[in-house]
Amino acid sequence: MSTDTVPRAWGWPLRGGGRAAHVEAGAAFAGTTSQLCGLFPFAVSAGADVRGVPLGRHLHTAEPIGLDPAHWLRAGLVSNTGVWVQGQPGIGKSSITKRMLTGLVGFGMRAVVPGDVKGEYTPLVAALGGTVFRIGRGLHSLNPLDAGPLRAELDGATGTERTRLAETIRARRLSLVEALITIVRRADVTTTERRLLGAALDLAAHADADPLVPDVLRVLTEGPDAMRRIAACRGTSDYARTTRDLVNTLGLLCEGAIRGLFDRPSTVRADRSAPALSLDISALDDDEDDVVAAAMLCSWAWAAGVVDAAGTGARPRNVIQVQDELWRALRAAPGLVERSDRITRLGRHRGVVSFQITHSLDDLEALPTEADRAKARGLASRNAILLLGGLAESELDSLARITSLTEGERALITSWAAPPTWHTGRAHPGRGKYLIKSGQRIGLPVALTLTPTESTLYDTDRAFRRRKQHP
């Protein structure tokens, strides 16, 4: 018996050893990879990184694909952690955003959802053990001059750090009040009004409490000497004429359509230990755009304070921030794009992964001025990562201003845009399908599959499922 562990060329010379009496020479064939792939697939990796939140499988190679903007930043794949999510209604933009939010919270980050217009994130935030504040008449109120979580940081700070925090709070307050005035009057504030507002804010501020809009209005109406010097007025009547428009505009914030929303002390208190926070403004969804825009801007400013506070202290935490339907706030009045960017930029730092979600870049055309439209395009193009769902061909032409798409990628995205037939009972071809783009790299097409729990938490059609419509 042979003791060879490796068989000889003709096999082992023993019974049952597979010995062959003759070994034929192999035939050599030549061909292209497109022809021979049926015999041997020559499988090549898509180059996808599986680290991060699992999003699904590659549509062509079935490889698992993960996404972690923070890891991509550390690895040098992207220059920032901004994520732009765009697609037609109903294809699952919020689903992939919620998957990312859930996964990143599991990695130890903190989720902040400011200005949830539809209340879509409320079930998820609650399931994550977070806190949801519902903003509306008879519900929670939000003081636009509230320092938020930065108040505790300011009280404990000293020296230059205290000065920095105080100036940050003041700048955010002033920017937000100017934005609210712009919404109410649909025109920008003048240089004199801006100086008057800054002085009134300083005089109304208290060391132990946050000022209210009525406090600023009271100081502005009383007109102390410092205010009169700024207005360059000769007497009481001259001062009253100079400040009349500004006083009436602030009066509308206290007595107009948004009365009771932003003229009271905040009842919102952020818990630093909560894994997720949400400001649900769905109670205002049926109000005029001015009211919704004001609520969204105040929510964004409050969230900027949460972001700043999360990055301080003994145990700083990175933050995921979601801005959905952002154009609804920006189109209310001229100049709001710049002001909203200023409000959020004051709290922006490396530890923030931001998601901005929209249906179409055509929303840009609804903005009041060309300057606003140009600045809004800049907001979109600054996001290093794009998650694209089904889109019409015309939409891809607008998208070319932000990123380049190959012909194959364009064809894939448009194929997800609409069902091919009128037959019912078939799933939308673009539901759960997305193209991940970053820079000039080839995009990663991924199919997202939800777990049963996710299907319940992420469902945005529950109102129709509860009330089935019959012809």
Structure notes:
This protein has a domain at 50-124 and 309-420 and 427-471: Rossmann fold (3-Layer(aba) Sandwich), CATH 3.40.50.300. The chain contains 18 helices and eleven strands. Helix 5 (150-156) packs antiparallel against helix 6 and helix 8 runs antiparallel to helix 10. It is elongated and about 120 Å long. With 471 residues, the protein is of the alpha/beta class. Helices cover 40% and strands 12% of the residues. Strand 1 (53-58) and strand 2 form a beta hairpin. The model has no long low-confidence stretch (mean pLDDT 83).
Concise account of the structure shown:
The chain has 471 residues and is an alpha/beta fold. It has 18 helices and 11 strands.
Assembly context of the chains: single chain
SS class:
alpha/beta
Assign an overall shape.
Answer: elongated
**Unreliable residue runs:** none
**Count of strand segments:** 11
Over the alpha carbons, how many angstroms does the gyration radius reach? Answer: 29 Å
Major beta sheet, strand line-up:
2-1-11-10-9-3-8-7-4-6-5
Number of helices: 18
Beta fraction of the residues?
5-15%
Mean pLDDT, to the nearest integer, reads 83
Share in helix? 40-55%
The CATH architecture classification of the domain at 50-124 and 309-420 and 427-471 is 3-Layer(aba) Sandwich
* Biggest sheet architecture: 11 strands, mixed
Tell me the name of the CATH homologous superfamily of the domain at 50-124 and 309-420 and 427-471: P-loop containing nucleotide triphosphate hydrolases
SSE series: HEEHEHEHEHHHHHHEHEHHEHEHHEEHH
CATH fold name of the domain at 50-124 and 309-420 and 427-471: Rossmann fold
Distance between the termini: 83 Å
InterPro entries: P-loop_NTPase, T4SS_component
